[in-house]
């Protein structure tokens, strides 16, 4: 006895009939949309985030303190502003 084909989304047996083949291999439009959502969020989301140019430029001009070493004043005291 052959096993009935199942919907890959909800694991339910696919309905039989003329209209059932519309959403093949899914049982309904809801499951077909769910599978489409997986592709959109899982596959197409990664290349859509290629906006690293701006983030790199911001990171380069971030810390200003690290670039200039503190100049030691006379007597070894730091210049205190009142
Ligand atoms: Zn289904």
What does this structure look like?
- The chain is an all-alpha fold and 82 residues long.
- It has a domain of 25 residues.
- It is built from two helices and no strands.
- The longest helix is centred in the middle third of the chain and has 14 residues.
- The mean pLDDT is 73.
- Zinc ion binds next to loops.
Taken in chain order, the helices and strands follow as HH
Class based on secondary structure composition and strand pairing: mainly alpha
Stretches with pLDDT under 50, minimum 5 residues: none
Shape: rod-shaped
Summarize it.
The protein has about 80 residues and is mainly alpha-helical.
Key traits:
82 residues; mainly alpha; 2 helices; binds zinc ion
Task: Please render the helix and strand layout as text.
Elements: H1 29-42, H2 52-60
The structure holds zinc ion.
